[in-house]
Amino acid sequence: MSAISEAEAVVMEVLWQQSPRSAEDVVAALAHRNWAEPTIKTLLNRLLTKGVIAAERDGRRYLYLPLLQRQAWVEAQSEAFIGRVFDGRVAPLVAHFSERGQLTAQDIADLKKLIQEMDDE
């Protein structure tokens, strides 16, 4: 599977939310982005070429659906980011956000709970 660009990921999010969808449905869902229809159709074609979506004929149009599951994409993106930026370690990632005051009390509570659950296993 080829890497998905940021713009392609936006199209994938639309398909992950609801599918199958026609190109017109995808264009309508992305109207707030002010992308031209040909741009969105180009992104759909790129995703087809990459094998991460499929197209099914529905009369005179095609309906698009994701072949790549969102969870699998998130896992790959997360691992690549942590590997590239934090040398494959999660603790420096958490420390980075903590040092900048970007962890809320809820984030800290969730992390403590997660660590406790891991210790209990």
Detailed description of the structure:
It is a single chain. With 121 residues, this protein is mainly α. The protein has 2 domains: 6-66, Winged helix-like DNA-binding domain superfamily/Winged helix DNA-binding domain (Arc Repressor Mutant, subunit A, Orthogonal Bundle); 89-121, no CATH class. The chain is 63% helix and 12% strand. It is built from 6 helices and 3 strands, in the order αβααββααα. It has helices spanning 6-17, 23-29, 37-50, 70-86, 90-99, 105-120; strands spanning 21-22, 53-58, 61-66. A 3-stranded antiparallel β-sheet has the order 1-3-2. A hairpin with a 2-residue loop joins strand 2 and strand 3. The longest helix has 17 residues, at 70-86. The chain is elongated, with a radius of gyration of 19 Å.
Return residue spans where pLDDT drops below 50 for at least 5 consecutive residues. none
Span between termini: 34 Å
User: How many helix segments?
Assistant: 6
Please identify the structural class as seen in this structure.
Answer: mainly alpha
Largest sheet: 3 strands, antiparallel
Order of helices and strands: HEHHEEHHH
User: What is the CATH-assigned architecture of the largest domain?
Assistant: Orthogonal Bundle
Number of domains: 2
* Name of the CATH homologous superfamily of the largest domain: Winged helix-like DNA-binding domain superfamily/Winged helix DNA-binding domain
From the 3D structure, determine the CATH topology of the largest domain.
Arc Repressor Mutant, subunit A
Helix content: 55-70%
Shape: elongated
Number of strands: 3
**Share of β-strand residues:** 5-15%
Mean pLDDT across residues: 93
Largest sheet, spatial ordering of strands: 1-3-2
Question: In angstroms, what is the radius of gyration?
Answer: 19 Å
Query: What is the CATH class designation of the largest domain?
Result: Mainly Alpha
